Amino acid sequence: MAPMVEIRDARKVYDGGFEALKGVTLDIEDGEILALLGPNGAGKTTLISCICGIALPSSGAIRVGGNDVVTEYRAARDLIGLVPQEVNLEPFETVWSTVRFTRGVFGKRRDDALLEDLLKQLSLWDKRNAKIKELSGGMKRRVLIAKALSHEPKVLFLDEPTAGVDVELRRDMWRIVDGLRASGVTIILTTHYIEEAEAIADRIGVISGGQLLLVEEKAALMTRLGRKELRIDLQEPLGAVPDALAEFDLALADDGHTLVYSYDTGAERTGIARLMTEMNAAGVILKDLRTSQNTLEDIFVNLVHDDSTEETGA
């Protein structure tokens, strides 16, 4: 079965020569949630814009539901719902007319029951007759989400959908995402809230400098790149790591009161048992042990840092 979204060597070069996308290739499967992470200016929004037909790729090919976004743009666009970063709504229209108009633009038959249910899910039903200009910023964001879902898209793009919004909206948003996932909608999410990607995504993509650094299943990524840290609280502080423990590449923390040992969770042996033996032989007495696992944020920061270091030749 073909992927819902197929991207092959997509490039985007703007007037002046700036290359926002540098040959991105990616398959997004039907019904999955892909979280696309990257710093500001990484190319996330440019990639979404090219897929949604807002911008044209300079070269390469992009298909949605088997439809080329350039030569078959109407068929491709009909499958897509987009919640953009920027709030751009007609201020003097009501919530109800705004959402109903968007459904009509996509050629969908009138379905007031569906729109009523959608507005209720987004806590907008009581505001259906209010003009957009009367709404708070959070309520306007809810209208954007309602517009994106009004024509029942098969692919939903969420470009920083919860940036700067209240906790209640974020909770409503993810509840709707769970329902859409259950109904088979493909969801592509860009976010600065890495904990959200860690909580709901099936796969994680990291983009930096217009290049896709990796795309991997979340659990596999955490296993492959994640490291655990053993923090050993000491009975007496050390001024330096004893020579007898040099092979373990330990670090001192907390003014010498803690030894920090990093190890690969996927390794056959962690080396912890031998470390304890050697510490005892060296006369280093432990007080307590604590372990912590790398988070997705740690992995993301390391990947982006490594990429920027390579680009600058540092």
Automatic annotation (TrEMBL):
One of its GO terms (molecular function) is ATP hydrolysis activity. Coiled coil: none annotated. PANTHER family: ABC TRANSPORTER ATP-BINDING PROTEIN. Residues 5-234 form the ABC transporter domain. Gene3D superfamilies: P-loop containing nucleotide triphosphate hydrolases. InterPro entries: AAA+_ATPase, ABC_transporter-like_ATP-bd, ABC_transporter-like_CS, ABC_transporter_ATP-binding, P-loop_NTPase. SMART domains: AAA. This is ABC-2 type transport system ATP-binding protein. Pfam families: ABC_tran. PROSITE patterns: ABC_TRANSPORTER_1, ABC_TRANSPORTER_2. Keywords: ATP-binding, Nucleotide-binding, Transport. The keyword Transmembrane does not apply. The keyword tRNA processing does not apply.
